[in-house]
Amino acid sequence: MYPGPVYPAPGYRYVPPAPPPPVRFSVGTHRVHWATAPLRAFTIMIVYFVLLGFPLLMTRTSDGAAVSFSPVVLLRFLIVSLVVGAGAVAAGLWGWLGLRFRIEGDDLVVENGLLRRRVRRIPLSRIQAIDVVRPLVTRVFSLAEVRVELAGGEQSEIPFRYLGRRAAGDLRAELLARAAGLPGHTPEAPERPVYRVPFGTLLGGLVLRLPVIATFLLMIFSLVFLIAFRELAMLAVALPALLGLIRAVIAPMVMYANFTVAVSPDGVRLRYGLLETRMQTVPPGRVQAVSVVEPSIWRGPGWARLDVTVAGYAGERQALSSTLLPAAPRAVVAQLVALVFPGTNFDAVPLLPASQRGMTVDRADGAGTDDVIFVARHGWLCRRTDIIAHARAQSVRLTVNPVQRLLGLATVHVDAPPGLVQVAAADRDLGEARAIVESTALRARSARAASGDTAHWAARQNQAR
């Protein structure tokens, strides 16, 4: 017979199990998650089936018209698949066993290889950003990839594919803590949410752009012409326009969905992504320059985009990580700029217009500076306000093109590390341009001397207190 429900004894109190202790990567040598090996082997097999496997299964008859299968073809396919599968498993195990890493003091030590070992020691002060990326497949297995972006060098990215989700967070927290000069067991710093981009704002920001609107109208016109006159040649116009809309609207929407910005003592934290989620952490002082982008249609609802240059990103990674806010009210963008460059208000910096003899169309363009930042505004259909902190300036230079030489004008460039944001004040009178170069160089030297090195920033703050 059923004994009936069992009730706990009087006074019983359920105590949930304690969470497992965090992983200390400064103790011992560590490897990535064991599931990395089968995932890599699975990826190799998928590529094999797509490029070679299915063609091996198909054979044509003597007339070359029909496709048929034979026992010989099937046997050949099985033999080749077993050989490739064994190679894929070996490659997965080789890659998993060959990667080891640990934290020694203020250095991240990465070892690669089995037969020939290669040891790389990276000072934590070179870390520019730490990204935690979770592609769709790895989210099923609760795995994550940690990408450590370094300053300069050809190999400026160190990827750890893949770690457990909890281990990935522990590695990120320990790297950020030690780079700030704190003990490795320091818990993750709390964060303060700044803004979450609503879906309507993101969609509106992607759609309300002149190139997107023009491409959409071109596609509609070609489809109407195709239906009305039965002209199939218009597909050569409609299909590229459709692909362009997918790339300009659908792809960024999937990438920047659920975009959230938060600030914490260890830097700016970004979370975004629909299919592939990404958590990006930019430590304090690593943002080199920012640009407030305001397309003409966005000025009606008062929206803006915030682009950024962070040293260490290169190539495709630079393009993927150059947006600090895809679309937001301009007041929110100004607030985030003030958080990135503390104590600044770029709207309060007086801008001197360019020379009347220049080629500038919009007389709202101009450039100005204060003791902390240099600001340059330009553009008419798409207005850009480029901002760089004097402490982040790499050089200040003056250039003159042939037209400017005839008009007695020059352009002043305040150079940041290579990136999306390039700060320049165009069409200045030659004497004014030389004065801007001298004063900006002096301000940059003073700012660098006052700010000092950004390494161990938390330890210096604690000593100052």
Automatic annotation (TrEMBL):
InterPro entries: UCP026631 (IPR014529), YdbS-like_PH (IPR005182). Pfam families: bPH_2. Keywords: Membrane, Transmembrane, Transmembrane helix. Residues 96-173, 256-329, 374-437 form the YdbS-like PH domain. The keyword Manganese does not apply. The keyword Ribosomal protein does not apply. The chain crosses the membrane at residues 39-57, 77-97, 206-229, 235-259. This is YdbS-like PH domain-containing protein. It comes from Actinomadura harenae. The lineage of its organism: Bacteria, Bacillati, Actinomycetota, Actinomycetes, Streptosporangiales.
